[in-house]
């Protein structure tokens, strides 16, 4: 957060500090920090019925499928409207469960318009098997709109169990590589340039590619959105713990610094009110 603050510190704050007006500077700094805390992050989750879309929404938010406020799951299509699911601890971070593309209500050629694509920071396109024509079309349309998108091959734990049962000489790493490469090639054959595919099990986020997805999202988000994602991220490895720790420490540091500035400003005000302007 300190680096973001230094980068985005505006001329008004600098001018206030240089003109010996710490009260004005502190006020602008406080407003800036409050703004940072409330920056919205809107994540669109889409995919066909049965792809594990709603389960992914819940897992990303750290919510059990049976918890109050969880996205409903079932053996039939449970998402008929664009539905927001705020993060339980960081409500400025919202995952939007979108209806599947190519339905009567959400036709492929009007899909982005109907779901209100402009409000989303990026899209995650989910499939439990190979990515199909509508998935590729959606990705290309998103690309034209200058938005980011990522492919998630879900239920990978089920696929691995099936492969292990059916292969004589099963090798987990080779199987994962084969699945990933097959997904990438299929998307490329349908005209998607450099698709980013992540193999994920929503019930076992610590396995497979979920940490890589989180790292990629954090890296590719605009600077002012990264902290929102970082604080809401699920802890799946040591690196994530370290990053979240640093983010929390930065928030505490800036909170303490802000308090100190307030005290200093009050002291200066009392001095000026009592004895006149500070010189030197």
Compact description:
The chain has 280 residues and is α/β, with parallel strands linked by helices. It contains eleven helices and six strands.
Characterization of the model:
The chain has eleven helices and six strands. With 280 residues, the chain is of the alpha/beta class. It has a six-stranded mixed β-sheet, with helices on both faces. Helix 2 packs antiparallel against helix 3 (22-37), helix 3 (22-37) runs antiparallel to helix 11 and helix 9 runs antiparallel to helix 10 (223-232). The radius of gyration is 24 Å and the shape is globular. Mean pLDDT is 81; it is low at 1-7 and 269-276.
Oligomer: single chain
**Average pLDDT across residues?**
81
Helix content: 40-55%
Shape: globular
User: First CA to last CA: what distance?
Assistant: 32 Å
Supply the key terms:
single chain, 280 residues, alpha/beta, 11 helices, 6 strands, globular
Task: Please render the helix and strand layout as text.
Blueprint: H1 2-8, H2 11-18, H3 22-37, E1 41-47, H4 53-61, E2 83-86, E3 93-97, H5 111-115, E4 122-127, H6 133-144, E5 148-153, H7 156-166, H8 172-189, E6 197-199, H9 210-220, H10 223-232, H11 238-275
Parallel strand pairs: 1-3, 1-4, 4-5, 5-6
Antiparallel strand pairs: 2-3
